[in-house]
Design goal:
63 residues, mainly alpha, 2 helices, 44% helix, elongated, Arc family DNA binding domain-containing protein, Arc_rbn_hlx_hlx
Amino acid sequence: MADKKTFVLRIDTQTYDAIEKWAADEFRSINGQLEWIIHRALKEAGRPVKKAPEKPKKGDKEA
């Protein structure tokens, strides 16, 4: 799994409630829903997240 940063997000109650319902409708956690929203917004803005190359797993052979 990729490293993740944690941070505090302050939003008004009505916005939180709307995100909570949306997340429940799509069977996601609120955190997962926020990650999805941010990822989609970045992609739509032409700023997709560049994934870091995967590190070889222990026991994998190098090509």
